[in-house]
Amino acid sequence: MNLNVWSETNVEYMFEEIKKKLRMATGGSIKASSVKEDVYEDLKDLYDLVMSKDNFSISEIDAITSELGKIRKA
Fold this sequence. Notes:
- By secondary structure, the chain is mostly helical.
- It has one domain (8-73).
- The protein has helices at residues 8-22, 40-52, 58-73.
- This is DUF1128 domain-containing protein.
- InterPro entries: UPF0435.
- It holds the Pfam family DUF1128.
């Protein structure tokens, strides 16, 4: 899997991995089809950040969730 290239499969994978890592119970409102190719790099950067850390503060989780919302709406 090459996450450097946009595809709905890659978007879905990254969202699922972010949700697992952050232990997010919900995330159904985030759909791969809602992420456009022009914001894919932002999602990839967020994914890389989340995967690079072991622990998150409440404020970090809040900021990451906010960024996911911005990516979804872009």
